[in-house]
Design goal:
This protein is α/β, with parallel strands linked by helices and 496 residues long. The protein has helices at 14-25, 68-78, 104-111, 113-128, 137-145, 147-162, 171-177, 182-189, 218-230, 279-284, 293-296, 337-340, 369-382, 410-424, 432-435, 442-458; strands at 2-10, 32-36, 48-51, 54-57, 82-86, 89-93, 96-100, 205-206, 209-213, 234-237, 239-247, 252-259, 264-275, 286-287, 301-311, 321-324, 333-336, 350-358, 391-404, 428-430, 477-478. The longest helix is centred in the C-terminal third of the chain and has 17 residues, at 442-458. The relative contact order is 0.19.
Length: 496
């Protein structure tokens, strides 16, 4: 079967649905069809799954952006579907819970004066004798905060998430994701005698509230899908793109796809492709092949498993999530879904999501659902989060390619691929987290599609989407009331 469309979008996550929504609104851009490999849910990693009245996210997804354009687009799509949610999270470290971000008093009391003093000395040493040209996550954090704070607050959790040594993770990860965070600054700030400057810089705080869809982030993307269809766009579920062949004579693409529901192949013919699928998978299946094909095979991804545990009452804590820095607990993070929204569980009941970071195909990934459910319940009991509550049910979700891995080689590979595509295929556009192999947040992923559509409209590259979220401070930090509306790194002024 041959299906023709002007625009073919691969993937119905935030970036793909944003592109589909904008194209379907603009009749000048032609027809559009989105193909999504999931047979049921749109939203990608920002989807919300559900069972028996319980809803749970695949990770946590806050709706906060420095871009006015993004905020307006969220409101346009979801309209009055948002609620306001208090932001609260904690860190479990050495069997103690620390508020996140840390307060000076709490740091001194729980870490102890002597440990705080040693952290301070380690920090001073790093400033006097920093490592030159830091290349790894370890180097960057040790230079910024000292070796002792690296070992205390960063090493265990980071290696749990990525499944690799901090010496193997690129410094880009630290520069992009933890630059300017309060965690260590506040620990150091608690040691007043180390602060010699009279006019010291005021430590930034994280936002205290954020918007959140009443029934989870999937509500946003389900609504976007509905509006795309109402604007004559098409969305086909259970469709996996397999081969991408460019026809130089016709100046069009032919994309061979597997319809997993019908177990049959279908071919799409299109003028342009906007892909949020994993860069590695797309590049290896392009014909004629790119010279960077072999390099693309070296791109890595980190997967994770969420075990949603449903209990007969609301949890006795109000954190949105808890980071687990404890080496004796395999879970890396716990989501408290009813703290995000009380509508995520019925009748004053609760739902907790334990996140286990692993790689597809390894022993942990291949555990049975029953084994994973039992492990999650045991972890909750060890943490004393489950005490007198009764477990109603549990549900397992395996998420492939949740995080693009920032190893030491990724940047060179991505740069080579993006340059080769730009030089050879003017009508192939890579967007989003996995499409660009870039750890973008939801708003960043959307912005890559917004700017891509602007490039398509102008028939030339007027925006460099690769500059978005480059070496940017953590997007939730604020300095004053106007800070929240400042520019996302790399975004033109008109989209602020």
């Amino acid at each position: 079967m041959l299906i023709k469309t002007e625009n073919l979008i691969i993937g119905a996550g935030p970036s793909g649905l944003t592109a589909g929504y904008l194209i379907s609104k603009d009749k000048n851009l032609g027809s559009v069809e989105i193909v999504e490999t999931d047979e049921k849910y749109v939203g990608g990693i920002s989807r919300t799954e559900g069972i028996n009245g319980y809803r749970f996210d695949i990770g946590g997804h806050r709706f906060f952006s420095k871009s006015k354009t993004i905020n307006l687009l969220w409101d346009e799509i979801l309209e009055d579907g948002f609620i306001e949610t208090d932001r609260k999270s904690r860190i479990l470290f050495k069997k103690k819970f620390f508020n996140y971000p840390l307060s000076a008093g709490e740091a001194l009391f729980k870490l102890g004066f002597f440990e705080s003093f040693l952290c301070g000395l380690s920090f001073l040493k790093a400033k006097i004798l920093p490592k030159k040209n830091p290349k790894s996550f370890h180097d960057w954090v040790a230079n910024s905060f000292g070796e002792r704070l690296f070992k205390n607050f960063f090493k265990t959790y980071t290696e749990k998430v990525w499944g690799m040594s901090c010496d193997e993770i690129s410094a880009d990860w630290a520069a992009q994701r933890i630059k300017g965070l309060n965690l260590t600054s506040l620990v150091l700030n608690s040691i007043q005698f180390l602060n010699f400057r009279k006019n010291r810089k005021v430590i930034k705080t994280l936002i205290k509230k954020f918007k959140y869809p009443k029934y989870g982030p999937g509500m946003m993307w389900e609504k976007a899908a509905e509006k795309i269809k109402n604007q004559n766009g098409k969305i086909s579920m259970g469709i996996e793109a397999k081969e991408f062949t460019y026809d130089n004579l016709k100046e069009c693409w032919k994309v061979k796809c597997l319809n997993k529901i019908k177990n049959e192949y279908v071919t799409y013919e299109c003028k342009r492709i906007i892909s949020s699928a994993a860069m590695r998978d797309v590049i290896k299946n392009i014909y004629p092949p790119l010279s960077s094909k072999n390099m693309a095979a070296n791109l890595k991804y980190r997967d994770f498993i969420t075990v949603a545990v449903m209990i007969d009452k609301r949890p006795n804590f109000d954190d949105n999530w808890i980071y687990i820095h404890d080496q004796n607990i395999y879970a890396g993070r716990i989501q408290n879904y009813t703290s995000w929204s009380t509508y995520m569980a019925p009748d004053n009941k609760g739902c907790l999501g334990l996140e286990y970071f692993c790689n597809e195909g390894e022993k942990f990934w291949n555990k049975s659902d029953d084994e994973l459910k039992q492990l999650a319940i045991e972890d909750l009991k060890k943490l004393e989060i489950l005490k007198n509550e009764n477990v109603i049910d549990a549900y397992v979700v395996r998420q492939k390619k949740a995080y693009p891995v920032y190893d030491k080689d990724y940047k060179k590979i991505v740069r080579e691929i993006s340059n080769e595509i730009e030089n050879n295929y003017k009508n192939l556009f890579l967007v989003g987290r996995n499409g660009m192999h870039k750890y973008n947040n939801q708003d960043h992923a959307m912005m890559t599609s917004i700017l891509t559509i602007e490039n398509i409209k102008n028939n030339k590259k007027i925006n460099d989407i690769w500059d978005i979220n480059v070496d940017a401070e953590y997007h939730e930090e604020k300095k004053d009331k106007s800070f929240a509306m400042q520019n996302i790194q790399g975004v033109p002024k008109k989209f602020r």
